[in-house]
């Protein structure tokens, strides 16, 4: 058995209403033929999913006709879909020393608003208890955005959970494995909120105007050729200021913005004086911000928008896996939104310590949790300032015991 309650609740379920406990990969079951919103009100299914049943479902999925839409991230079809193969995430990279793998994925598809609360509860409960997953999951009416850490023995079970669900079956692309692996989150947090904070209404029809996705090797070759032909080729870093401080692609324009919303305004200004047919290259951490930004630009008439599929994460893996000594177009570290705060792509140090100005690319948070400032700090300054930002109040609190800090609580 894969563990208790690995079959998502019927809001998610693809199990037959007759309680036959068989996953439905084709349209042989009445439940499969029902509209997706109707599944949200179905009675709870108590059966568990065996490994053999998962395998049977995957075999049936392999025999099913492929979707006409070839996008890895966008699914226009409503209702339950045939599940994808359970081995689609293999081969797994080398796990971290603590036995965890870190991965991310995102997908754009319709989730009825009324279904979101129960879907959130099911993921929070079953992923944390049954699958021991930690991470940060966002869901909304336009799909899912997930960053997580999972133990090696649970990876296949996670894919089985996704493919046994009416919400996610056939819709989640191959996991985007991190460059470096370990438990990157303390706990699992699942929230109903926009996948990317755009600051404007964003529906599936707009998201369906996708940019062209280039795999890391394609991206590298095409970008080299484009920059050789035209040094003014527009390459935009779609990440925030603190992210590109520690690593970036050569020749990239890095807008000085702290939010995606602010950066989109700057990118629109960058593109305003260019022909609508000129190529626009974009990259970000894991790809989702570029999918959204590219869709917005294409909806505004820019016809030649290209993005790095899988983002810097995928490119970093590409650099690690290819022949040793091959030059990388990305220099430095990739910033990560977890407790690692970065993973190395190349050994170059591009940033400086915010306290002494010496070469350093290690982000930290001030040890005074009421401050929690994110900044770059070298080991010498961490020792000198007691792992704080250097503010006198923060240094004083760093010397307090845990009990004293509780007794002398302060606001942020």
Short characterization:
With about 400 residues, this protein is α/β, with parallel strands linked by helices.
Ordered list of secondary-structure elements with their pairings:
Layout: H1 30-33, H2 36-39, H3 51-63, E1 100-108, H4 116-129, E2 134-140, E3 143-151, H5 155-163, E4 176-177, E5 188-192, H6 204-207, E6 212-214, H7 216-229, E7 234-237, H8 241-244, E8 247-249, H9 260-272, E9 280-283, H10 288-299, E10 305-308, H11 311-321, E11 330-334, E12 343-344, E13 363-365, E14 374-376, H12 379-384, H13 392-398, H14 402-407
Parallel strand pairs: 2-5, 6-10, 7-9, 9-10
Antiparallel strand pairs: 1-3, 1-4, 2-3, 8-11, 11-12, 13-14
Describe the protein's architecture and organization.
The protein has 14 helices and 14 strands. The relative contact order is 0.10. It has helices at 30-33, 36-39, 51-63, 116-129, 155-163, 204-207, 216-229, 241-244, 260-272, 288-299, 311-321, 379-384, 392-398, 402-407; strands at residues 100-108, 134-140, 143-151, 176-177, 188-192, 212-214, 234-237, 247-249, 280-283, 305-308, 330-334, 343-344, 363-365, 374-376. A 5-stranded mixed sheet has the order 4-1-3-2-5. A 4-stranded parallel sheet has the order 6-10-9-7. It has a 3-stranded antiparallel sheet with strand order 8-11-12, with helices on one face. Residues 1-49 and 57-69 have low confidence and may be disordered. The chain is of the alpha/beta class and 412 residues long.
Write out key terms for the chains shown:
29% helix, five-stranded mixed beta sheet, 412 residues, single chain, alpha/beta, globular, 15% strand, four-stranded parallel beta sheet
């Amino acid at each position: 058995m894969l563990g208790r309650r690995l079959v998502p609740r019927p809001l998610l379920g693809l199990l037959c209403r007759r309680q036959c406990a068989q996953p439905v990969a084709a349209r042989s079951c009445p439940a499969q033929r029902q509209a997706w919103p109707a599944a949200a009100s179905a009675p709870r299914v108590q059966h568990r999913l065996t490994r053999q049943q998962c395998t049977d479902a995957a075999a049936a999925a392999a025999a099913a006709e492929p979707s006409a839409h070839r996008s890895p991230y966008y699914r226009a079809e409503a209702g339950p879909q045939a599940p994808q193969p359970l081995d689609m995430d293999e081969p797994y990279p080398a796990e971290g020393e603590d036995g965890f793998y870190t991965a991310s994925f995102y997908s754009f598809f319709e989730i009825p608003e009324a279904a979101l609360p129960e879907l959130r509860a099911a993921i929070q409960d079953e992923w944390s208890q049954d699958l021991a997953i930690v991470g940060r999951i966002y869901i909304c009416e336009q799909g899912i955005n997930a960053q997580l850490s999972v133990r090696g023995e649970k990876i296949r079970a996670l894919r089985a959970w996704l493919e046994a669900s009416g919400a996610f079956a056939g819709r989640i692309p191959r996991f985007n494995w991190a460059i470096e692996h370990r438990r990157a989150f303390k706990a699992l947090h699942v929230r109903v909120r926009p996948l990317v904070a755009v600051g404007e209404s964003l529906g599936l029809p707009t998201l369906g105007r996708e940019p062209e996705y280039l795999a890391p090797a394609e991206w590298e070759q095409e970008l080299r050729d484009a920059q050789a032909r035209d040094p003014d080729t527009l390459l935009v870093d779609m990440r925030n200021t603190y992210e590109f401080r520690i690593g970036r692609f050569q020749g990239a324009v890095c807008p000085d913005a702290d939010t995606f919303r602010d950066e989109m305004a700057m990118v629109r200004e960058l593109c305003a004086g260019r022909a609508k047919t000129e190529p626009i290259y974009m990259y970000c951490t894991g790809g989702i911000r570029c999918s959204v930004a590219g869709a917005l630009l294409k909806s505004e008439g820019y016809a030649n928008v290209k993005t790095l599929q899988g983002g810097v994460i995928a490119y970093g893996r590409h650099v690690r896996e290819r022949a040793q000594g091959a030059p990388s177009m990305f220099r430095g570290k990739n910033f990560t939104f977890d407790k690692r705060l970065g993973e190395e792509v190349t050994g170059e140090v591009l940033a400086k310590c915010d306290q002494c100005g010496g070469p350093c690319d290690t982000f930290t948070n001030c040890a005074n949790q009421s401050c929690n400032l994110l900044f770059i700090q070298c080991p010498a300054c961490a020792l000198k300032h007691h792992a704080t930002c250097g503010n006198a109040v923060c240094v004083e609190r760093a010397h307090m015991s845990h009990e004293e800090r509780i007794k002398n609580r302060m606001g942020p």
